[in-house]
Specification:
The chain contains ten helices and no strands. The chain is mostly helical and about 270 residues long.
Length: about 270
């Protein structure tokens, strides 16, 4: 995993740059977010192909993790490019649930791993994995049960904060990995959960800053804000759609025809 850290760091930097570009109302902001998501998907796809074609033995859980991450990042990329995907909500939910099962198994393995300091120090590992799992559950159930999804996401954020502060403050912690530093502990897990943890932290911090007015929302010149507001009401479980036979792709097509008709009339 260490060999990909530079690539992931670069993608995270581009992700932040794209978000700030979008907040500054630059046209390329959303496109950059889409390309970064596609970059993550391609890296995960390369890792999957290399794993399946390599000579080393691999576990089913590692393959399932990569499949879930590829699905999520590819859907995010298409969404940022405003390309509708049939049943995208259900595909993203299925991928999130698959990752929940993978990380639940990794949590079990981490707890069973013998350590020199006793089982009490494993509470930080439990907090970390529980935070990642709750974040994925929040992502999976929010389209259907938005209120429960908000509380689940809040619990995930608190657990990850517990892990970060606990792993930094706990003295002399050694768990068969290098040091008690949070990044060293995460690196010892040998999975890709830290990517989701970092993205969740960025999302949570940005969402909080937008709600209290410290940062502006993301901007897209391709469609006005009301387009995304109306489109989100067509998501399953949103409760905002008055027509159950109208999908997001159909709404997008009707909107584009409406804009074209009005532009032709003005000409």
């Amino acid at each position: 995993m260490n060999r990909y850290l530079t690539i992931f760091f670069l993608l995270f930097m581009l992700l932040v740059m794209g978000a700030f570009a979008s907040m500054a109302q630059n046209n390329y902001g959303f496109a950059m977010l889409g390309w970064v998501s596609l970059g993550f998907a391609l890296v995960f796809l390369y890792q999957l192909i290399k794993k399946l074609t390599g000579k080393k033995a691999y576990s089913k859980s590692s393959v399932a993790e990569l499949l879930g991450l590829i699905t999520l990042t590819a859907l995010f990329s298409l969404d940022n490019f405003h390309i509708p995907v049939p049943y995208s909500t259900y595909l993203a939910t299925a991928a999130a649930i698959l990752l929940v099962l993978v990380y639940a198994g990794n949590l079990r393995d981490a707890i069973q791993k013998p350590v020199s300091d006793g089982n009490s120090n494993k509470s930080w590992i439990i907090a970390y994995y529980a935070g990642v799992i709750l974040f994925l559950l929040s992502f999976a159930i929010s389209p259907f049960l938005p209120q429960i999804g908000i509380f689940t996401g809040g619990g995930a954020f608190i657990l990850l904060l517990v892990f970060i502060f606990g792993s930094f403050l706990l003295p002399g912690l050694r768990k068969g990995w290098e040091h008690n530093h949070a990044l060293h502990i995460i690196n010892g897990f040998r999975d890709r959960s830290f990517i989701l943890a970092c993205i969740f932290f960025l999302m949570a911090l940005y969402g909080s800053a937008v709600r209290i007015g410290w940062l502006p929302p993301l901007y897209s010149d391709a469609y006005p804000k009301v387009f995304f507001d109306m489109g989100s009401r067509l998501e399953p479980g949103s409760g905002g759609s008055t027509r159950t036979d109208l999908s997001q792709s159909e709404f997008k097509e009707k909107y584009e025809r409406f804009v074209e008709r009005n532009l032709e009339q003005k000409r």
